[in-house]
Amino acid sequence: MDDVKLTCASLHECGTQEVSSQNDALLDLRNQITHLFCTRLNANSITVLQEKLRLMQRSSYYLEVQHDLPPTEEQQQTLNLSDSTVLSLIDHWRLEGALTLANTQVKLLLSLLGMLYEEIIRSCRELEVFIIKCNQGLLDSDMAVSMQEKLRQTHQYLDDFESRMTRNLGPLDLPNQLIMNTGQHPMAKLSASLAIKMPVVFDRCKSHVTSYTAHLFWEVATQQSEELGQEFEILIKSLHPTADQGEFIKTTCQSYCIQFSNLTPDSYYQFSVKRVDVLNLVYELWTDTIILKTTNVPK
């Protein structure tokens, strides 16, 4: 009888220890998830991720061609594809292939970043539900194992998102050299890379209209100072319900502001700004647009 009592007591202690161990594991998992919410998944961090994704989606992407120089000189020299001399050295069909490859790489990059962001948000919601159930004592061991894996995946999604922001930019692995080997340019060797420029956006605080004139100002997102040599395309379209509705004016300028005159008072106008398309542009979808109404002329 004493042996039976000892055995029961031993089983009870083992059961108690197992329950205690499970509780400790759940508490540790809960603490790990809570720490993640306080650091990489807090409201500010999610906003930053969303803004990074939006900037990448709105940016302009370009194919840059570099001339690989001998080791005694500079390592690389970026060439301007609008230069007729440079174009004369490059095989047209191989250049088209490089532009297509760069376009595909940008689209894949943006698709991957979008999917990673969605997975991060989805994982965030699942982890929040886990915390709620944990606080209510409604968990089982299977759910704990599942959430442990979800926590690991979430960290991986966050790491991949950050690394992919720049990993696919830079040198392109071209199947063919841009210059055909004719023997005429034995030292000429070109390489290609993918470059990014941040989106152009109107300064909505400074841009304004009067009765007859529009004063437009814009900037490059995240850029602290104006970069020289940039060219922008500005489009003004009348939205006033009169005979001139739908008419537009398109112009280009190298400054970060412009003035339009001879507008109609008390009328709506749509203004758009973007970078001027160039030969090596491979991907660009974003054009910033604002609608402003000219003031009425006092009687």
From TrEMBL:
Top-rank lineage group of the source organism: Eukaryota
UniProt protein name: Fibronectin type III domain-containing protein 11-like
Organism: Scomber scombrus (Atlantic mackerel)
Taxonomic classification: Eukaryota, Metazoa, Chordata, Craniata, Vertebrata
Pfam families in alphabetical order: DUF5581, DUF5581_N
DUF5581 domain boundaries: 27-166, 197-297
